[in-house]
Amino acid sequence: MDARSTELQLTEWVQDWSESGAPVDATTELRHSGILDSIGVVGLVARIEDLTGATFDLDTFDFSSTVCVRSLVTHCLAT
User: Fold this and answer.
1) Domain range for residue 62?
2) Which pLDDT tens digit goes with each residue over 27-40?
3) Is the pTM of this model over 0.85?
């Protein structure tokens, strides 16, 4: 599965998980906007690992920066 397809599936996952009703795309800020809480972010990371087969390196991701589907997928695939 390519990164774009993964992003689309994850964007749908975020919309299903979130109760905010806010529109979401691959670059929507998820954490600071309140679209996902910390449990939601953990669930999203687990879903990314399931879809990609890669392991997300929590130690090297900067959660103080933009947390969006694209940044999470890019990080996971790069490690």
Assistant:
1) 3-78
2) 999 998 999 999 99
3) yes
